[in-house]
Every structure is written in C-alpha cells, then in structure tokens.
Amino acid sequence: MNDDLKRALALQKRRLAGPDPMEKHILLLKLSEAAENAPSFGPKPILEAGTPQRQWLSQVRALLIRLDSIGKKVKFETNFEMLSRYWEWGINQIQGQVADAIEELKLDLELDGRSEIGSAYSPGEIYRFFADLKAIINSARREIVIIDPYFDGAAFDAYLTSANVIVDVRILANQYSAELLQYAKRYEQQHGKYVEVRRSKKLHDRLIFVDENECWIMGGSIKDAGKKATYLIPVGSEIAHKKLKIYNTIWEEARTPEYSESSSTE
Q1: How far apart are CA 145 and CA 209, in angstroms?
Q2: What are the structural domain ranges in the chain?
Q3: CATH 1.20.1730.10 assigned to 119-253
C-alpha cells in the first residue's frame, strides 16, 4: 500500500471519528480568526480566484468540512451556490454558519471539560498528555515539525514509531540528537519512511508544527511531560507562520548529528 493510499485511508478514518478536543481547539481558533478577519464583501458578487473574498470562502469551507464532513459541507455548498444571484443573503448565511460553528465548538469543549484554550496538565497526568499530543501528531496530513532541545529516543518511540505515521517528519533537537538519529535510521529500515533529524544549540521553545499552518506550544520538554506540570496551547496563525519561518532558518543552519550504531547519547 503506497503512502497516498495510506494517507487517504487515515484521513477518512479521522473524519468518521470526528474531531478530538485538541483538533476542536484548532478549529475554534481558526474559525474565530476567520470571523474576526473577514474581508469587506460589498453589495455585488466577488468570486474571482485570488480575491480576498474568494480566499476567505475557501478557507471557511475547508474548516467547516473538518468540523463536520457531511452536514456542514452540504449547507455551505447550498449557500455558496446562491452567491451569484443573492450575494448579500448568501454571505450572511455563511457568516451565520461560521458563528454557529464557533458556538457549537465552545459548547462541545465545555462539555468535554476543555473550555480553556489548550490544556494544562498536573504532574502525574502522563496518559492524558500522551493522548492529546498523539492526537495532534496524528492529525497531520502532510508534515510534522518537532522543536524540542531535549526530545529523546523514548519520546520518538512513544509518538512517532507507529506505522500509521506516513507524513513527512522533521525533528530539531540538541542534547539527544545522535540517539534520535539512531531511532530514525531504524524506523526507516523497518517502515521505509525517512525521518529528518538535525541538531542546533539555538533552541528554547518547545513546539509542534502540523501541516505548516498549525502550531502548538508546550510548557516543557516532551520527554518530561506528565512527570512535571506542563501545558499544550495552540498558537494563532500569524504567530505560527512567523515562528515556522524562524525555525526553518535555524533548520537550514543546523547540522545533521553523526550517526553511530554503538552510541546512545551525545
């Protein structure tokens, strides 16, 4: 089974299961940003490709489908088809759909006990952190970038050694980077999937980037999560893009650690 088919099956499985609490936080954040930053629509239809209005509609459509792949898609498509004839009415309907989705997400998160943006974890809540971070990583469609100076082999085993991980993975670490490279090489031998590891001493943040447009910040190293108090908080799109740009520059300057079958730490 090739990677494209695996990715399609994994995506379908996630859609059928519905968004988990961590994905709901991202959807809430992005829908709220869309509502706050909606362009001026005016009295006449503006549907040309590349216009801010069309880009906004495309973004909202994608987010609503992520939230509910069937019901909200049908409602959006119905409203979208009316835009060429009843522009102002259709835009009002779509903006109302966004507002309803935001309130629905807030209520769902409140009922899940996750009304605060992101999640905080007390010492000992190892499994809850593991389940939440695993859900974030498994939500990726294309790429995962992990920034963590103390990310180690045990963390690699816990979060990245599933055969279901079929997306591109980059890890920017420091102290245990040689150990990580061993895990990555063995993972590649078993699963045929290359994981890039680089080392830099310029790291301070602990971040997870998903598909280049989602970013989660952690209160400490992944390897200590659950043992010490920590948190997972989604970062707004503008800040996420700026941080990814910064760390892509650091990535280009970083070196690949030396590979050794016998060494386990640096």
Answers
A1: 5
A2: 3-111, 119-253
A3: no
Other Cβ atoms within 10 Å of 192 Cβ, number? 9
Rounded Cα gap, residues 202 and 221, in angstroms: 15
Task: Look at residues 101, 113, 37 and name the one whose alpha carbon lies nearest to residue 67.
Answer: 101
CB 177 within 8 A of CB 113: no
pTM score > 0.85 for this model?
no
Apex 40 CA angle, 90 and 60, nearest 5: 55
Q: How far is CA 88 from CA 13, 43, 95, in A?
A: 37, 6, 11
Tokens, residue 250: 């650091």
Question: What is the rounded average pLDDT for all residues in the chain?
Answer: 84
- Name residues whose C-beta falls within 8 Å of residue 201's C-beta, 6 or more positions apart in sequence: 174
**By C-alpha distance, which of 48, 67, 210, 213 is closest to 145?**
210
